[in-house]
């Protein structure tokens, strides 16, 4: 959504995001030092929210990645430790649309 003087306009372009994002370049110097001590600050993409319709109304649905990793291990939120999960190690993607949930192949 782009807000303009007197109204707004919906952006219909495809948006792309990486499956992993390193936030270290956006940290302060002290924050970057702390992240280095913790093994970095890599975040995994675990969900995507989609809006269909117009800027005046429409419908939302989402895609969510299973939080149980494929390798059976566990992970806490926040910065990923060096032994954290890789891009392909999370579980399957699911499509949530109102009362319906389907696995995305």
Structural description of this entry:
The protein is mostly beta strands and about 100 residues long. Helix content is about 10%, strand content about 35%. It contains 1 helix and 8 strands; from the N terminus they run E-E-E-H-E-E-E-E-E. It has a 4-stranded antiparallel sheet with strand order 5-6-7-8, with no helix packed on it. It has a two-stranded antiparallel ribbon with strand order 1-2. The longest helix has 9 residues, at about 30-35. It starts with a strand and ends with a strand. Mean pLDDT is about 75; it is low at about 75-85.
Summarize the structure.
The protein has 105 residues and is mainly beta. The chain has one helix and eight strands; from the N terminus they run βββαβββββ. Strands 5-6-7-8 form a four-stranded antiparallel beta sheet, with no helix packed on it.
Give a count of the beta strands, DSSP E runs of length 2 or more.
8
| Contiguous runs where pLDDT drops below 50 for at least 5 residues | 74-83
Radius of gyration: 18 Å
Order of helices and strands: EEEHEEEEE
Terminal Cα span: 29 Å
Major sheet summary line: 4 strands, antiparallel
Strand residues, percent = 35-45%
Strand order of the largest sheet: 5-6-7-8
Percent range of helical residues = under 10%
CA-based shape:
flat
Number of helices: 1
Structural class, from helix and strand content? mainly beta
- Average pLDDT works out at 77
